[in-house]
Amino acid sequence: MTAATHSTLFPQVPGPGQFMAPPQDADAVLDGLDPEQREVATALHGPVCVLAGAGTGKTRAITHRIAYGVRAGILQPSSVLAVTFTNRAAGEMRGRLRQLGAGGVQARTFHSAALRQLQYFWPKAVGGELPRLLERKVQLVAEAAARCRIRLDRNELRDTTSEIEWAKVTQTVPADYPAAVAKAHRDAPRDPAEIGQIYSMYEQLKRDRGAIDFEDVLLLTVGILQDRHDIADQIRRQYQHFVVDEYQDVSPLQQRLLDLWLGDRDSLCVVGDASQTIYSFTGATPDHLLNFRTRHPNATVVKLVRDYRSTPQVVHLANGLLAQARGRAAEHRLELISQRDPGPEPVYTEYADEPAEAEGTARRIRDLIAAGVPAGEIAVLYRINAQSEVYEQALADAGVPYQLRGAERFFERAEVREAGIALRGAARAGGNDSLLDDAEDLPSQVRAVLSTKGWTTEPPAGSGAVRDRWESLAALVRLAEDFTRARPGATLGDLVAELDERAAAQHAPTVQGVTLASLHSAKGLEWDAVFLVGLTEGMMPITYAKTDEQVEEERRLLYVGVTRARLHLSLSWALARSPGGRASRRPTRFLAGVRPGSAAPGTRTAGGGAGIERGGGTAGGARRGRRGPVRCRVCGATLTDAGEMKLMRCEDCPSDMDEALYERLREWRSEQARQLGQPPYCVFTDKTLMAIAEAVPSTDGELARIAGVGARKLDRFGADVLAICAGQEPGEGDEEE
Question: In the prediction, which pLDDT does 504 show?
């Protein structure tokens, strides 16, 4: 053994008896677990399969299992490797294990664990330094396509990159790609032969430049463990017990790596739910979970079905969705049993068109916030990211703050890194930092330090980068307040350590605002109130879901969306895309037989619309219902884009906007936002101001016809806007009267 093997990556494993805890201390870990969770926690030998439904406390069960084993002296902390699929989940698991007294346990993603091993063993197995890791492969894929004389637009480039990732995690080489696509019934973004060509050239470019990508990290680790038995043995001596969360999402390549880590041992605990398999397009498959008992006939199998997250009403809907499912995953579905008090029934709403659906959703959200539901506990979930724009617009018009999930990682933002450096410096200086002279507690110390970086007690009026920076710093202030409540007496140094831990785990504090997210990105999260929108055939299931297997995955995706809700659940759809359009859409087939008054598939019922609310109750909604298709006032083309409909013209058509009027409106808006303590978009969005500056309305009726000027805003701001349009100062007309 070389000196390098004494690094922190491979610490010395204590011998039997070196790490023991009093049995009563171990038993304390079991307090508060339900019977099934306790069964998981005490099943410490041999293979264990935990089938855990949504909201059933699976993370609690497996972290308490590890902690119980560690405290009882059965598991050595450094010999346990817990694997999950996101940095966020791994960070949460490490945090819980620390609280339970099992801080030495490794909890990592597959890629993180493999990368550490690859970096450690590369010099010994291959020699030299590990090749450079590509952070993003899109640019190299674009170059590979150009070398092949294949022109890709931006969307094709993104999709081709995803295809290459899928091929690699399913262990498909470039030459076999076309056949693999046909066998998997995948819709390739281009001719499969062309993608195979690009894939081959991409691999060649990587080799020429001494670079590897994230999939190579797994492939190369697998290769080393297969070829070098001495290295495989060293890893197996270190890691003797494995826990895999979200096992239904394992790809063939990840399963191969897991098998090599295990060797001929069976100390493995897997946790998953086949009904939450929604990432097959990335190569994930529930087969490993469903075949676990076949591969391990003596496995202990525990089912977790007590749902602690959602009300009986939400759980009833979730169970109803899966009751109609077909296929192998459906045969292993779990019937959830809610442990919560009854709550409101799910609300089903049908709207005339998409803008009306977005406005109705924003109105309901505003009502929930007024009733005391925090904005950060509300989410709007949709099938594809392109659906977000109309909801961003509607929430902005309603004055509701929101955040888009999937933006730049919190701890990678420049202002957050700068804040971390400032807080670390203040923690080192301690009482010698004059900034902290008047700060009595930890939150006030943090506020004092961050005030030098742009944080203020009131948010800035701007809605761009300045506002984004303030929101990031405000999130750190809220984190300090929460941290102090959880750990009274904590110091600034303790908070800095917590921030470092979260940064390593990408565990960002919650930004206060309604979350807008795709159903896929909502997996693993939960909110008090969830709005599932755009639930029409063609969107749910998505148009390109053609095979029975693909349609069933869409059903599971809706199931995941439903089970994100704790208390309030709203499901909606629009009969037409744009105002006045043909009402040809139908609600998703998945709700047939589930929502009140609807018939199960294959049957008929009179009054199929029972239990459905009709949206479009505002003046704006009624106006849209009577209006025909929206046409460009310049070229006459039918408009479908929400922003173009607001301007009443195509984005590319020439504008006759009064630039001076637009600037006066912007100045007025900034002042209004400052007085209200809200971002400017909550007064009027840029697109609405542009539409006003183009139309130059002179009456309430003309102003009301502009999209984004609802009855509430007309009443609140109409007089000022009309005065500005007439060349007067806001309020002049009132004074003359």
Answer: 63
DSSP notation for 308-361: SSS-HHHHHHHHHHHHT--SHHHHT----EE-SPP-PPPEEEEEEEHHHHHHHH
Higher pLDDT, 713 or 528: 528
Q: What does the alpha-carbon distance between residue 254 and residue 154 come to, in Å, rounded to a whole number?
A: 29
Residues near 570 by beta carbon (within 8 Å), at least 6 away in sequence: 346, 347, 348, 349, 361, 364, 529, 530, 531, 532
Q: Is 63 left (phi over 0), alpha (psi -120 to 50) or beta?
A: alpha
Q: Check: CB of residue 571 under 8 Å from CB of residue 349.
A: yes
On the question of pLDDT at 17 being above 60, the answer is no
The structure tokens 């009064």 sit at 658
Count of CA atoms in the C-beta half-sphere (13 A) of 580: 13
Cα 518 off chain centre by: 7
The sign of the CA dihedral 378, 382, 385, 388 is negative
* Terminal C-alpha separation, the chain: 93
Long-range contacts of 606-609 (CB under 8 A, 24+ apart): 609/350
Q: Which of the two residues, 185 and 671, has the higher pLDDT score?
A: 671
Q: Kindly state the average pLDDT of the residues 704-711.
A: 78
Single-letter residue type at 251:
S
Structure tokens at 511: 């930004």
For residue 345, count other CB atoms closer than 10 A to its CB.
14
Q: Provide the sign of the torsion angle of the four alpha carbons 11, 13, 14, 17, taken in this order.
A: positive
Q: Does pTM top 0.90 for this prediction?
A: no
| pLDDT confidence of residue 328 | 79
Specify the 3-state DSSP secondary structure of 737.
coil
Q: Given this model, what pLDDT does residue 336 score?
A: 92
- DSSP code of residue 186: -
**At 21, is the pLDDT very low, low, confident or very high (cuts 50, 70, 90)?**
very low
Tell me what the mean pLDDT of segment 116-133 comes to.
88
| Residue whose pair of structure tokens reads 């091929």 in the numeric block | 167
Per residue, the 3-state secondary structure of 540-552, as one string, reads: CCECCCCCHHHHH
